Amino acid sequence: MSTTAVKELRAPSGGRGAAFLVKFNLLIVFAVLCVVASVLAPEFLTTRNISNLLQQSSLVGIVAVGMTVVILTANIDLSVGSTAAFAGMIVAIMIGAGVPWGLAMILAMLAGAALGGVMGGLSAFLNLPSFMVTLAGLTSIRGLTYLLTDGKPTTGEIPEAMRFLGAGRIGAVPVVGIIFIIVVVLAVLFLRGTTVGEFVYATGSNKEAARLSGLPVRLVQTAAFAICGLLAALSGVLLTARLTIGQPTASQGLELDAIAAVVLGGTSLFGGKGGIFGTFIAVLLLSVLRNLFNLMGLTSFFQMLVTGLILVSALILNHLLERKGGARA
Asked: For the chain: N or C, fewer Cβ within 10 A?
């Protein structure tokens, strides 16, 4: 099937225009927030704080990129936090057992991809709601993570080279931030520059029309979950590299942060509309907001409340954009 035919299955021009408008408004909000933060907390613009901000946002951002791919297919993955913790634990276990750290990282990421692919396949081929499948995954994968070491942290010797990936800096720029940016660029190229990326948008825009047009809809959905699992595992591995310890309780609530960033970035929960750039800006916006709260001495409970309110507001905005896009179609 030609790429032109696939594009015809994507969202109507009115919906795309609304999505671009959301991205533009998000940039304005981000810029205004940075100005406000610099006024309320003068230390916000220091090199050290900006470097720390990028480091803190990168792990969530990497997962949010994978979540964007899944949500574009009109699905959702609630298991990313558990997958990240699982990957972080097994990479520490393998290194402690003498496996070279590079190979251990690759195997941990492949395990994450396999977990994501299994859940995506169950949802796609058995027509099960991805919400329920990944909710079960959230619980079962976390339980498996606890079983690996009886719920205790793994304190294997993390090599210096691996620690550099999680906590190192090149000048003032954190290495994990560079990895995040690389993941964003690759994801943009994948979604906007490949036929498979077009299949992702077409599947989310209208699954039945895509299927009738000959697209491998079920395989596309499975691949989207595998990509999400791979990136969740990468996040977990990098967290272990930074902490130098495998922690079974790590990354709890990561799915909420990732979903909030994706939806705030303009990607529709109904699929087929949005993209990586909006998610990237939203991740930075939420990180700046939390960083400002920390600099002002506000509690983590307040931060949780604001994150939830932002997610609800983004959902309402998505609903309004869907209605507006439908009226223009």
From this structure: C
Residue the block writes with tokens 């210096």? 160
Q: Six-digit token pair at 216?
A: 């491998």
Count Cα neighbours of 179 within 13 Å in the Cβ-side half-sphere: 24
- Is 301 part of a structural domain of the chain? yes
Predicted confidence band at 307 (pLDDT cuts at 50, 70, 90)? low
Distance of alpha carbon 64 from alpha carbon 279, whole angstroms: 7
Strand partners for 25: none
Integer CA distances (angstroms), 51 to 54, 163, 170, 238, 285, in order: 5, 17, 11, 17, 15
CB neighbours of residue 13 within 10 Å? 11
pLDDT band at residue 321, thresholds of 50, 70 and 90?
low
Cα-based distances in Å from 58 to 52, 64, 81, 199, 280:
10, 9, 14, 27, 10
Nearest by Cα to 251 from 164, 142, 120: 142
Calpha distance 195→228 (Å, rounded) = 19
Long-range contacts of 33-38 (CB under 8 A, 24+ apart): 33/285, 33/288, 33/289, 33/292, 34/288, 36/292, 37/288, 37/291, 37/292, 37/295
Could you tell me the CATH number of the domain that includes residue 313?
1.10.3470
Task: Determine contact, residues 77/116, Cβ cutoff 8 Å.
Answer: yes
Exposure string (b/e) for 119-147, b if CB count within 10 Å is 16 or more?
Answer: bbbbbbeeeeebeebbbebbeebbebbee
Which residue reads 């960033």 in tokens?
261
- Tell me how many domains the chain contains: 1
Mean pLDDT across 27-49: 85
